[in-house]
Amino acid sequence: MTPVFLVLNSGSSSLKFEVFDAKGNGEPRRIRRGQFELDSKPRFKATNPEGEVIAQSRLCDGAGHQQALDHLLSWLREHDDAFSLAGVGHRVVHGGQNYCEPVKVDEPTLAALERLVPLAPLHQPHNLEPIRILDRQYPRLVQIACFDTAFHHRQPQLARLFALPRSMSESGIRRYGFHGLSYAFLASVFGRYDELIAKGRVVAAHLGNGASLCAIENGASVATTMGFSALDGLPMGTRCGSLDPAVVLYLMRETKLSVDEVEGLLYTQSGLLGVSGISNDMRELRAQASSQPSAQLAIDLFVYRICRELGSLIAALGGIDALVFTAGIGENDAATRAEVLRGSAWAGFELDPSANEKGGPKITRGSGPSAWVIPTDEELMIARAMRRMIGEVG
Ligand code: AMP
After folding, report:
1. Do both 129 and 213 map to the same domain?
2. 177 in a structural domain
3. pLDDT tens for each residue of 17-75
């Protein structure tokens, strides 16, 4: 039997998983990945590290997280050489004010994490659901929660405060920041690319369907564009990003939208999708940009906002040594990288067009700050936390 760490990333209508060989004491090695789509046609698909599909099947209509987990665990058990679970690691969006490191989940911890649901109502319940299910079925299974907020926990007070009455900040209404697993992974590998990035002033740009920027100094988060929720900062696939709060008041008072309707509007109908009226998907927008002005406008707004937020984070850092692009758009869309670097030429960036087209890793030249493309790996970050907390596995 091969002992494995199972890493789960659970959303409202999907369950993504990665399986790491846990044997020994070293860096866990990814051996499988896959996902369940839990929509009107629930289905399962798994691939090997080379990306070849090694299993896929339909689940019964109406299947949810319980059925997906049952399916996954029996698939792991039946596997060639039978995988035995050494632990399960979970991506959890919110750790609140107290959880600033990965934690082994017991009943009081789970109850505390459930109390954070109002801070991230669209993500936290779905992140916690598999923990609850597995805990009921396998009470002795080690489960570890890793938080998207944790990397930002030590930011300076000024970066965390809203200009609201202090009593509100003390009750938890403050900036938390997200995408922390992604930024923590990047910070852990900067030294492989350049010593200056590891020790210097970096802005990391996590540009995927969710998007944010993070100012990192000497490996630690100093400021970030997401705030109280994952709605703040940059426009995203379907989220609006920073918005004058008076817009929300206006929508509710004058257009009589309910809280749920405003929430749906800001989280699922805005961003690239809302501005273009076409798609939340950058590939689709690039394909249509020459014929559809609204697709080009959505891209232009995305790039413009990145450049403005980048300027703000450069101010927070007091200068910049490197800019790092990651996630779906950051790793794959050379045009977005080029436009951001051209829009930020004032800071000294000099694009190397052919290196950028090739995907880097270094995509600038000259003596100014450098820019890089570095693939992120949030799941490996979770598997590393499991190794630290579970230790050697025989
Ligand atoms: P993520 O949430 O990190 O999976 O990123 C999803 C976003 O990345 C979507 O907007 C995709 O269109 C975009 N993306 C993925 N691959 C490419 C690509 N080859 N070129 C441009 N955008 C891409």
Report:
1. no
2. no
3. 999 999 999 999 999 999 999 988 999 999 999 999 999 999 999 999 999 999 999 99
Whether 333 maps to a domain, the answer reads yes
CA 111 to mean position of chain CA atoms = 24
Same domain, 70 and 15: yes
Domain CATH code at residue 203: 3.30.420.40
Active site residues: 148
Sheet holding 43-47, edge to edge: 53-58, 43-47, 29-37, 14-21, 2-10, 83-92, 143-147, 103-104
Question: For ligand 1, atom 4, which residue shows the shortest CA distance?
Answer: 328
Closest to 371 in 3D by CA, of 193, 212, 187, 188? 193
- State the closest ligand 1 atom to the C-alpha of 280, by its place in the atom list counted from 1: 10
Q: Domain total for the chain? A: 2
Range of the domain at 118: 2-147
CA 157–ligand 1 middle distance (angstroms) = 34
Whole-structure pTM value: 0.95
Same-domain check for residues 21 and 143: yes
Nearest CA to ligand 1 atom 18: 332
Q: What is the pLDDT of residues 275-322, one digit of tens each?
A: 999 999 999 999 999 999 999 999 999 999 999 999 999 999 999 999
Helix (H, G, I), strand (E, B) or coil at 327: helix
- What's the 211 CA to ligand 1 centre distance in angstroms? 11
The verdict on residue 187 lying in a domain is no
Q: Could you tell me the sign of the dihedral formed by the alpha carbons of 335, 339, 345, 347, in that order?
A: negative
